[in-house]
Amino acid sequence: LRAEPCFSLTLEIRTCLRAEPCFSLTLEISNMAEANLSAELRVNTESGRSIKKAIIPIAGLGTRFLPLSKNLPKELWPLIDKPVIQYIVEEAKAAGIEEILFVISSDKKVVLDYFKPSPKVEKILKERKKTALLEELKKLQDLTDGLSIHFVFQKQPLGDGHAVLQGKKFAGNDPCAVFWGDDIVDSEMPCILQLSKVFKTCQKPVFALHRIPRERISAYGVVDAEKIASRFYKIKRIVEKPPVDKAPSDLAIVGKYILTPEVFEYLEKAKPSEKGEIIMAEVFDEMLKDGKVIYGYEFEGEWVECGNKETWIMANVYFALKHKELGPKLKKFIKDNMRI
């Protein structure tokens, strides 16, 4: 009533299975917007489940890149000196993921081959004393060390929800991360690790969110959400590609999220769209209508899209400018050719 932050503190002490006291500490602040809290609203010494599994759907047809993607999957297209899919796997590994399931189409097994050793190539490089290139290959093998990689076929392209559903058996009763191959986040802390930390406090599905300029909002799925704390939101509904004047917010859903087993139950009973597809956004909306809780987290970092020709080119420019060797050369090239 005094227009100042109000605090409510609850301390619960109980006996755990370990026959030791366990503490649950909850801090509520009525003036959340001004409190600048971290996403960890609840401090609990019995930490929640962490994320060890990830699903990476890459079975799409790549129609936005045709005819270029007809023979070479867009996931293997380079962003400067490594393919798009490597950025995704690097983020998963850095976030503590131990098992990855690729959802692929029958003509994309070449993506899996990329992560396999290349004895023939290594032999030639050794003979030619190409130590720098050998070191790059070693880095790629180091990336997959400690990772258990699986794959499953999506026989028909029946929507993003159908692709994720192929991972139901893989996920089992565990929470699971999902990475879409079109979205890379350049950040100090991996985006999916940021979501994982939020998940450990709430144990509910969590979306990655990012603010989009209003003039571009109609190209994205946008959330109507209640702000709970700094960067932390409770999702109320999802609006797919709204007109600018109808958008409930400027927070777009990025292709990274944490799912709980319950999401797969909804995917299984989802009704296909008129095109015969299972759409993730519609499934999430159905969950929200049933009173299920879904959160969103506005991650820290730069969202680098590469889902069409335009964004793929810009993603290359973005990473080239940050590249230790190429950056200065590209800046000089741009400066010298400003007349273009």
Automatic annotation (TrEMBL):
Record GO terms (molecular function): UTP:glucose-1-phosphate uridylyltransferase activity
Family, per entry:
Belongs to the UDPGP type 2 family.
| UniProt-listed InterPro entries | GalU_uridylyltTrfase_bac/arc, NTP_transferase_dom, Nucleotide-diphossugar_trans
Q: Where's the Nucleotidyl transferase domain?
A: 53-316
Name-wise, this protein is: UTP--glucose-1-phosphate uridylyltransferase
Judging by the UniProt lineage, the source's domain of life is Bacteria
Organism, scientific name: Candidatus Nealsonbacteria bacterium CG_4_10_14_0_2_um_filter_38_17
Q: Name one GO biological process term.
A: UDP-alpha-D-glucose metabolic process
Name the Enzyme Commission number(s) assigned to this protein: 2.7.7.9
The catalysed reaction is:
alpha-D-glucose 1-phosphate + UTP + H(+) = UDP-alpha-D-glucose + diphosphate
Q: Which UniProt keywords apply?
A: Nucleotidyltransferase, Transferase
Task: Give the organism's phylogenetic lineage.
Answer: Bacteria, Candidatus Nealsoniibacteriota
**Enzymatic class:** transferase
